[in-house]
Amino acid sequence: QVQLVESGGGLVQAGGSLRLSCAASGRASNSVAMAWFRQAPGQEREFVAAISWNGVITTYADSVKGRFTISRDNAKTAVNLQMNSLKPEDTAVYYCAAEPFGSAANSQSSYRHWGQGTQVTVSS
Predict the structure, then answer these.
(1) Is the Cβ–Cβ distance between 35 and 84 less than 8 Å?
(2) 73, 78, 87, 96: most buried by Cβ count inside 10 Å?
């Protein structure tokens, strides 16, 4: 079992930046693909970004390309999402997901382990 704890959410003005972090612990926590998904009120959860278990592959949703960057720490037990040039439409609860030895998949079904989520609110 892999446990995930997100941090770094908050309120920011449009054009600003936030950095989300997700710490993994438990079995195989240093060999997990990790991803970020988000869910806005009244909308389905959607893919944001992912990084493979070895950090070689990253994928991004078109809506965040060039603005968001996903990375992982040297111990591979945490992942960060640097969010720049934030827009009001980025407002959502952001969820971290993980899958041992996974690739940087963009589908929710590819990840068995999920965090509780952290709120990101971008004001106009």
Answers:
(1) no
(2) 96
The distance in angstroms from the start CA to the end CA of the chain is 40
Residue 88 and residue 14 in contact, taking contact as beta carbons nearer than 8 Å: yes
Give the other-Cβ count within 10 Å of 74's Cβ. 7
Distance CA 108, CA 53 (A): 16
pLDDT tens digits for range 6-22: 999 999 999 999 999 99
Model pLDDT for residues 75-108, shown as the tens digit of each residue: 778 999 999 999 999 999 999 999 988 899 999 9
Q: Which of 105, 81, 93, 87 is nearest to 23 (CA)?
A: 81
Q: What length does the chain have?
A: 124
- CA 111 – CA 123 distance, rounded (Å): 31
- Between the CA of residue 41 and those of 14, 28, 29, 119, what are the distances in Å? 18, 33, 30, 11
